[in-house]
Amino acid sequence: MAVWACRPTRFPTRRTRPDPHLSVCGADAPSYNPARAAGLSPARLSDWTARAGVGVKRSGILSRSGGLPRFREMTVAARITAGFGVVLALVLVLAMVGLGWFHAVTRDVGAFSNSADMSQAAADADIGFRDLEVAVRDHLTYGDDQSLLDATWRHDTVVERLDALTKSASDPADVTAVTKAKASLNEYWTGVQRAIALRNERATLLITVLEPVVAQTREKLGLLKSAGGVDSTALASDAAIAVLLMQEHLSRFIERRDPQDSDAMRAQLDTARGKLSEMNRYLWVPGTRQTIGEVGDLLTKAADAAGKAEAAVVEEDTVRAETMAPNAAGIAANIGEIRRRADAGAVGLRGALADGMSGYTKVALWVGGGVLLVGLLAVWFVQRSVARPVHAMAGAVTALAAGRTDVALPVVQGDNEIAAMARAVHSLRATAGETERQRQEAETAHARLLREKDRVEKASHAKSNFLVNMGQELHGPLSDIVNSSQALMTELHRLGVEELAVDVEHIQWTGEQLAGLVDALLDYAKIEAGAMDVCLQDFDVNRLLIEVRERSLPAADLYGDSLAVAAPAGLGAMHSDFTKVRQALLNLLDNACKFTQGGAVILSAEKIERDGATWFRFTVADTGKGFPTAQTARLFQPFAQGGAPNANGKRRGAGLGLTLVGHYTAMLGGDIEVASEPGQGTRITLTLPAVYQPPAEERPLQVEAVGNAKPLLRVASYKPVAQLTQ
């Protein structure tokens, strides 16, 4: 509720500038008439004018004879005009001097600022590249996804800073250095990507090839241990140990890049092959030669995989040494060259700026001092002839406006504007009592409105608290009813008591409806209190449609409606509040089923492009009773119920379903399109962004636009359901 406060009207004191009625600048200009300001009749106005003696013969700059008058004979308006003319001339002189000084200083400051900006931009680019090197080194060391994302982000940051340097660079040498830095950065990043690819290839080779081969080799050697005597067991054990040592030396080589680890890895492979050859001479058990051959093939595969891993390590080191390191040095050198050149220019400009500022300031001070002296003299003349009597008159008017009717008015001689004001104050004094009474009445009304506003706010807060407390108290028992009826229904189905199971199922469904109503009340209370949050997550749109249809089938069956989903496969995912999107669709489907009864309800979805972004359009169409589109805004208001009343004279539902749909859509940055025709059906379309963006402004549940905000609700022409599927 808006509370309008009425402030009593006061008479202006006009302390800072004269009233336009007080200065007469020509024979045709009206003179100030205090009787007219006091609301006198035309007859009394004429009489008062004659008695006041206020004329226009001496108004203006010229005297009665047509020549220049003496200063004391000038009117107040003429004195002020002359004073302002002098001050304006002095201000113009001072402004010309200031503009000259400002132009010179701005030119030097601009040049110095450009050099300083170039230096800062180069420093930022250098720091960004150092951070990029650290991020790349971390990823090549640990290989986690977070370090890769960090390196990519820092690379993009360096590119942006080099682009900023390109835009601000004017010196050809700086432009050349930035171009070289960009080229080196591209080559450096290409080397980084190649090193990352080699590292991933090596890791894949170790995991998918070498480790399975080692495991199979150990398994085969375990079979050979039990195929012969003590000698064959020892040879098989030695071969297995050699394979494990080969794998360990390869891991050490990858970690330390030591050639001795590579030689030791090959030596262990040769040892394993030698043990295998020796077993081939001793073992004559049937099938052992085939196993020995299989182990030999596995050792060959292991040697091949180890060789490829070693080659990948060598190539990665080559990329680091021949591509990444030189280009990193080139980037640092070019950025450092730009920074040094900018710093040198800034140092030179700083000295020139200091010298110029000193000279400009001296000239400005001398000229400003002269202008100030002349201005002080002009102000003294105007203050002596105008400000003193005006100040005395302003004090009297201020006291009168404050309600003091016993104030003594200053005695002013003459026929000028100030004297006319003094005579007008006598008329104002007569109305001061009435003005004070009106002010007191206005203050009383304002206090009453504030009390009413506070009472209404407390009532609204109490209502929200009541809804929240009631919902929390009801939610627990309703959940127990739903859970208990579900368990009872399962037990009745198991015992074969189908009729009772159907009744219990109806109890469960009714309890779920009541729980949904309580949740709706809680959500509405949160929205009213401004405590509703948006919880973002990624979810598949097609699965959302399937889940919504399954949850709405009981309502469709209850009212004898057919419920279908019309949407292409592979719509993709949304990044939004899954709970709010699902609840909005469930509310629309529940309304459609409730007001259709024996008809068809269709839920459709499609992906569209809007303003260069991806959006999803959800449409719920039915063949129900429909409603006039003029009622669209009313149906989306809280506790507004549609449809005909039931046998008890009550309408179905609590009137919060469409209200919550509107609030959810506004919170998610979408809009609603409503089309309905009485006796034909209704179609409601929700259009939501695929990726949530916070709304730029608050959009109320209205069809018309409010201010610069776009309307949340739109009314469209109705299209029958049969045409939607064509």
UniProtKB/TrEMBL annotation:
Classification via CDD domains: HAMP (cd06225), HisKA (cd00082)
Regions annotated as coiled coil: 425-459
Keywords, sorted A to Z: Coiled coil, Kinase, Membrane, Phosphoprotein, Transferase, Transmembrane, Transmembrane helix, Two-component regulatory system
SMART domains: HAMP, HATPase_c, HBM, HisKA
GO cellular component terms, A-Z: membrane
Subcellular location, record wording: Membrane
Keyword field contains Kinase: yes
All residue ranges annotated as the HAMP domain in the record: 384-437
SUPFAM superfamilies: ATPase domain of HSP90 chaperone/DNA topoisomerase II/histidine kinase, HAMP domain-like, Homodimeric domain of signal transducing histidine kinase
Main localization, broad class: membrane
PANTHER family per UniProt: HISTIDINE KINASE 1 (PTHR43711:SF1), TWO-COMPONENT HISTIDINE KINASE (PTHR43711)
Keyword Cell cycle on entry: no
TM ranges: 80-102, 363-382
GO molecular function term, any single one: phosphorelay sensor kinase activity
Record's protein name: histidine kinase
Enzyme Commission (EC) number: 2.7.13.3
Residue ranges of domain Histidine kinase in the record: 469-692
Origin species: Azospirillum doebereinerae
Recorded superkingdom: Bacteria
Catalysed reaction equations from the record: ATP + protein L-histidine = ADP + protein N-phospho-L-histidine
